[in-house]
Amino acid sequence: MTSLPTAEDLSRRAREAAERCGVDLAASAGDRPVTSPVNGEVLISVRWQSRSDADAAVRKATEAFGEWRTVPAPVRGALVRRLGELLREHKEDLATLVSLEVGKITSEALGEVQEMIDICEFAVGLSRQLYGRTIASERPGHRLSESYHPLGVVGVISAFNFPVAVWSWNTAIALVCGDPVVWKPSELAPLSALASAALLDRAIAETGAPANLSQVVIGGADVGEALVGNRGIALLSATGSTRMGRAVGPRVADRFGRSLLELGGNNAAVVTPSADLDLATRGIVFSAAGTAGQRCTTLRRVIAHESVIASLLDRVASAYRSLPIGSPLDAGTLVGPLISDSAYKSMQDALLAARQQGGEIIAGGSRRLAEAAPGAFYVEPAIVRMTEQTDIVRQETFAPILFVLPYSTIDQAIALNNDVPQGLSSSIFTSDLGEAERFLGPDGSDCGIANVNIGTSGAEIGGAFGGEKETGGGRESGSDAWRAYMRRATNTINFSGALPLAQGVKFDI
Question: Which of 262, 380, 396, 435 is catalytic?
Answer without folding.
Answer: 262
